[in-house]
Amino acid sequence: MTKQRIAPRFDALSPASKQASAVKRKNRAKGSGAEALLRKRLWARGLRYRLHAKELPGKPDIVFRKLRLAVFVDGDFWHGRDWDQRQRKLAQGHNPGYWVEKIRYNLERDRRNTLELESRGWRVLRLWETDILKDPDGATEAVARLAQARAIQADRRSE
After folding, report:
1. How far from the centroid of its chain's Cα atoms is residue 102's Cα?
2. For residues 45 and 84, is the Cβ–Cβ distance under 8 A?
3. Burial of 62 (C-beta count, 10 Å sphere; 0-12/13-18/19+)
4. pLDDT for 3-19, tens place per residue?
5. Most buried one in 26, 85, 131, 137, CB count within 10 A?
6. What CATH number has the domain bearing residue 136?
7. d(CA 143, CA 91)
């Protein structure tokens, strides 16, 4: 069993500015604009799902229980999109030790949660928030195709 890292703490840090603190406080763990857009489009296509299953690793944003399909809508900043580039930028900003470690921790946690779900027989799909916002039809289609494939697999297993 691998040793799980502890998330970085804010204790010894000062905010970059009142404005930066206010912006970060408004970031949502659930129900982001991209997530709401994707959910609305999936529902319109007749796909029924549950939200934020607390009993599953990582509390997936969208869950198709019968299909064992978990969908995460990952925020570009918090989940380290383009990590090499983002890491360099964070290293030049305020509280770089915290932010680099925080996002690195999030990346490791996401990998652990994905592996744990997969080991339990779940299929995991991770979508970037900006990809959903740029092409909501494409993101919806990706989820729908995977859900359909999982439904076909489930039907074959039950025969």
Report:
1. 15
2. no
3. buried
4. 666 666 656 655 555 66
5. 131
6. 3.40.960.10
7. 35
Higher pLDDT, 97 or 106: 106
Residue 52 has phi, psi (to 5 degrees) of 45, 60
d(Cα 117, Cα 148) in Å, to the nearest integer? 19
Residue 35 in any domain: the answer is yes
Residue type, 81: R
**Alpha carbons 78 and 99: distance in angstroms, whole number:** 9
**11 falls within a domain:** no
In the beta sheet, which residues pair with residue 119?
A: none
Q: Residue 1 pLDDT more than 70?
A: no
Question: How many domains would you assign to the chain?
Answer: 1
Binned at pLDDT 50, 70 and 90, residue 66 comes out as: very high
Evaluate whether residue 16 is within a structural domain.
no
In a domain, 127, yes or no: yes
Residue ranges making up the domain that contains 41: 30-158
Query: Residue 73 forms beta bridges with which residues?
Result: 127
